[in-house]
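Quick one from the shared queue. A colleague (R.T.) flagged Mechanosensitive ion channel family protein as missing a structural entry in our internal table.

Convert sequence to structure tokens.
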Amino acid sequence: MTGDVNTSRLLGLDALWAALLDTWREVERALAAYGANALIALGLVLVYALVFRLASRAGQALVRRLVRPDAQATVGHLVRTVLRLTFGLLVVLSVGALFPGLSDWSRPVFRAYLLLLLLFVGWSVVSHLLRVEADRLDLDASLRLLARNLTRAVWVLLGVYLVSAQFGIDLLPILGGLGVVGLAVGFAAQDILANLISGVTLLLDRPFRIGDWIRTENHEGQVAGLTLRTTRLRTRDGEFVSIPNKDVAGAVVENLTAGGRLRLNIPLGVTYEGGVERARAVLLPVLQTFPGVLADPPPVVLVQELEESRVRLLLRFWIDAEGVASSPVTRMRVLEAARAALDAAGLAVAYPRLRVQLDPAPEMRAD
């Protein structure tokens, strides 16, 4: 062997150790230059946090004492936000004054603070106007949410643009680049965009509202929510189903509660021997006294079809909007009560019959 191998240099440990030493020297120089100021800044932050907590409690106490109960939540939120922005400004200005490199940002930070206060107060006014107009137009919860979210998105984008301008940042080229990227993403996410557009269409067209019972091609339930992507139903079994908006917008939707009352039609077959009038006389009192069946319009018993082995009757009656949720149970109980009444009257519920006539084979027939 000509010499020993330097394992540390081979594994790169010497270079790593040298990098660590250089980093430590930089940290030592930074601590020597700014260590005292960093400790003072940390102390200021803790003091401001304590003062903010005390001021927040005092402000909430004044709100509870001076503001009406119905407006305390809104005013309290306004006071907390103003205090957060104010103390945040004080922290930034105080810390910036301790470090020479940050002192030049004082004026832009102060202008951004004023803009944020103005935007927040403006949003409170806009939100109040939206709520007043929604009450005046009697908009449902989904449409209120759509209007509020869209307005908030525009307001936030406006705030980001104005605040960025205070620091010399031009967002227009960035937004242009994002537009190109958004176009590319749009082609890759056509289903998501289709659901978004369908959601907006459903919110504007309003074929149903929150709380309505609806029936689509494959689902039936109560509308629990409508977002920009899905329609959420709560079925009669207590299950929650999320349906893509494009499937709902492109399907036939039956609104069971929009008209208030709902008519139920229950077919029931009886024998020809019992007679239609006698069956009607037995079944009408059942419908007229059944819980949940409306007296106006009155229930009726009609002949739907004359079949080979039975007369198919149609029990037709109305229920109110509150009874739509339990309409399947009502249908089953009416059938049970109708069967019991027919049995008590000696009338039989018919079932399909098939008469088979067997002729003898030709070789078995008598000559």
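Residues 170-258 form a domain with the SH3 type barrels. fold (CATH 2.30.30.60).
Residues 13-66 form the longest helix (54 residues).
Added to the table.
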